[in-house]
């Protein structure tokens, strides 16, 4: 006869009780574990996060952590939810729909700026932690009572999802540039200078007239300016759809 898993074994980490507190060799909690993991990820990157390193930072044996979480994946979920908690703590999302969606986008960008590793985890299935759900609830609620969306919850979800998809894509592009800088030892300006002779020779062939215009006339603004201009394009598209 197959033994059914105990509730404590099968429940998601959000609903699983923590072990009884132990005063020695040092008190632990999920909050302390996640705090140590956040500090490690912020300082050294996501690849540096392991249960062993987090345990060492807390002066505890790795096996003690398994009383609070079962896998590294659960630790990553707890870390993401802690960042969502920071976003929720900024207060209600206010304003008309454009202002609300812009606020959502900038909160995510600010969180990713503070925690560069975050963007690698904002993909795949939705996060289900209590703070992630609170942020999603606030995002949807900010639009659900806004003129233009009415009772159409599908339109609300489409708008929020579209903005989030844009934000993740834009932030991944920015993160890729930062990663390239670290790996190559050259920032964007230095890399452009190093590759310019080749680009100049290719443009001189006359085969790339539009790229020549980009090099000659484009302003190449900073990431934050590019982010806002791209966000305006997304919001303009949502506005045009609402008018229909």
- Rg over CA atoms: 23 Å
Class by alpha and beta content: mainly alpha
Can you count the helices?
A: 11
Order of helices and strands: HHHHHHHHHHH
Separation of termini? Answer: 60 Å
Q: What percent strand?
A: under 5%
> Averaging pLDDT over every residue, what do you get?
88
The biggest beta sheet reads: none
What characteristic shape results from the CA principal axes? flat
How many extended strands? 0
Which stretches are poorly predicted, pLDDT < 50 over at least 5 residues? 1-9
Q: How much helix, percentage-wise, in residues? A: 55-70%
Could you explain the architecture of this structure?
The protein is mostly helical and 244 residues long. It is 65% helix and 0% strand. The protein has 11 helices and no strands. The protein has helices at residues 7-10, 30-44, 51-57, 62-65, 72-88, 97-114, 130-144, 153-184, 188-204, 209-217, 223-243. Helix 5 packs across helix 7 (130-144). It starts with 6 loop residues before the first helix and ends with a helix. Mean pLDDT is 88; it is low at 1-9.
Helices and strands, with pairings:
Blueprint: H1 7-10, H2 30-44, H3 51-57, H4 62-65, H5 72-88, H6 97-114, H7 130-144, H8 153-184, H9 188-204, H10 209-217, H11 223-243
Helix pairs in contact: 2-3, 2-5, 5-7, 6-8, 7-8, 8-11
């Amino acid at each position: 006869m197959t033994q059914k898993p105990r509730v404590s074994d099968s429940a998601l980490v959000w609903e699983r009780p923590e072990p009884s507190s132990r005063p020695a060799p040092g008190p632990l909690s999920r909050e302390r574990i996640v705090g140590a993991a956040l500090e490690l990820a912020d300082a050294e990157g996501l690849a540096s996060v392991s249960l062993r390193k987090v345990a060492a930072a807390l002066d505890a044996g790795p096996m003690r952590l398994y009383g609070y979480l079962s896998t590294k994946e659960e630790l990553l979920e707890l870390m993401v939810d802690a960042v969502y908690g920071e976003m929720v703590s900024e207060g209600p999302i206010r304003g008309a729909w454009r202002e609300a969606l812009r606020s959502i986008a900038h909160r995510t960008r600010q969180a990713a700026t503070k925690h560069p590793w975050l963007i690698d985890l904002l993909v795949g299935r939705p996060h289900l932690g209590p703070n992630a759900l609170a942020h999603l609830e606030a995002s949807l609620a900010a639009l659900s009572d806004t003129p233009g969306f009415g009772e159409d919850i599908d339109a609300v979800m489409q708008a929020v999802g579209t903005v989030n998809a844009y934000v993740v894509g834009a932030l991944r592009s920015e993160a890729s540039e930062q990663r390239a800088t670290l790996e190559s030892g050259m920032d964007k300006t230095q890399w452009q200078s190093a590759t310019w002779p080749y680009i100049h020779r290719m443009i001189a062939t006359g085969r790339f007239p539009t790229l020549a215009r980009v090099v000659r006339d484009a302003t190449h603004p900073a990431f934050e300016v590019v982010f806002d201009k791209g966000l305006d394009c997304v919001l303009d598209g949502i506005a045009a759809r609402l008018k229909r």
